[in-house]
Amino acid sequence: MNVQQAHIPVRDATTPADALFDVLAESGCLVVEGLASAPALAALKAELAPYLDRTSPGEDDPDAFYPGLTRRVTGLMHRSPTARTFMMHPLVAQLADRHLLTNCKKWQLNVSAALSIGPGARDQILHREEDLFPYWTPPRPNLILATMWAISDFTAVNGGTQIVPGSHTWEAGRVAQPHEIVRAEMPAGSVLFWLGGTLHGGGANITQSDWRYGVVLTYTLGWLRQEENQHLSMPLADALALPPEVRSRLGFDMDYDGALGFYDKRILLQE
User: Fold this and answer.
1) Which residues pair with 192 in a beta bridge?
2) pTM higher than 0.70 for the full model?
3) CATH number for the 10-268 domain, one of 3.10.150.10, 3.40.50.150, 3.90.1700.10, 2.60.120.620?
4) Is 61 in contact with 97 (CB distance < 8 Å)?
5) Starting at the edge strand that comes first in sequence, how are the strands of the sheet with 70-74 ordered?
6) What is the DSSP string of the chain?
7) Is the pLDDT of residue 114 over 90?
8) Phi-psi group of 189: left, alpha or beta (phi > 0 → left; psi -120 to 50 → alpha; rest → beta)
9) DSSP letter string over 152-203?
């Protein structure tokens, strides 16, 4: 019997959001090409270069969750204005509204990280973004939407993200078989979307000199705690200087009509 290899659906940026969401909901993953321009990619690289350049890729520990030979930088919302424009991209908002607003009144940024995977890096352990919240068992309610922005070209050999299409519907304990795992291949400027219940992991880089560069931004329900503490990842004065819609996306506001995350604005304004 022939075993069919899994694949990640690919669409372009002109595809209507409703059609994209239908594909994403069915497959649990989707590549959209052409979302970031060459000037935007160049700007982001320039903004984050000082941080990546002084970050050691480290040695590999085969038992560690995060593979070595990889440069990682977090706190992108403070360090990169361009990353903030990616966070606020209209298509991200449209897909997150459709996926997350079934279980909340507002959603927020969960994680921001730049990941540069170097030659020799191994595959990451397959996992789900929603494993942060073990109080539900898979398949869980809609809790997270994830994105990976391709800052460089992603290939099957330079660390393209591993994805298991359809695994967002699997029961707990099902193990992905080799033909069910596919590595994201997409040109720079593309975005890989996946649902919080979809199995995925960083890919192995088996090239000699090609560093794979991506920016991951994930989003979660407004009433869940963020994995990356955005309130400590940016000085408060800088956060207050941002437009209100950006602050809201970062979680610097109240949810559910002021009942969750309430605060006294007079303290912030030093009245």
Assistant:
1) 31, 148
2) yes
3) 2.60.120.620
4) no
5) 10-12, 29-33, 191-195, 144-150, 212-221, 107-117, 70-74
6) -PPPPP---EEETTS-HHHHHHHHHHHSEEEEES-S-HHHHHHHHHHHHHHHHTS------TTSSS-SSEEEEE-HHHH-HHHHHHHT-HHHHHHHHHHHTTS-S-EEEEEEEEEEEPTTPPPPPPB-GGGG-TTSPSSPPS-EEEEEEESS-B-TTBTPPEE-TTGGGPPTTPPPPGGG-EE--B-TT-EEEEETTS-EEPPPB-SSS--EEEEEEEEEETTSPPSS-TTTSS-HHHHHTS-HHHHHHHT-S-BTTTTBS---HHHHTT-
7) yes
8) left
9) S-B-TTBTPPEE-TTGGGPPTTPPPPGGG-EE--B-TT-EEEEETTS-EEPP
pLDDT tens track for 207-252: 999 999 999 999 999 999 999 999 999 999 999 999 999 999 999 8
Tokens 């955005």, residue located:
230
Is the preceding omega at residue 16 within 30 degrees of 0, hence cis?
Answer: no
Per-domain residue ranges of the chain: 10-268
Whose structure tokens read 């942060």?
132
- Name the residue type at position 62: P
What the block records as the tokens of 191 is 């975005």
Query: What distance separates the 2 farthest-apart alpha carbons in the chain?
Result: 73
Q: Whose structure tokens read 């919080």?
A: 196
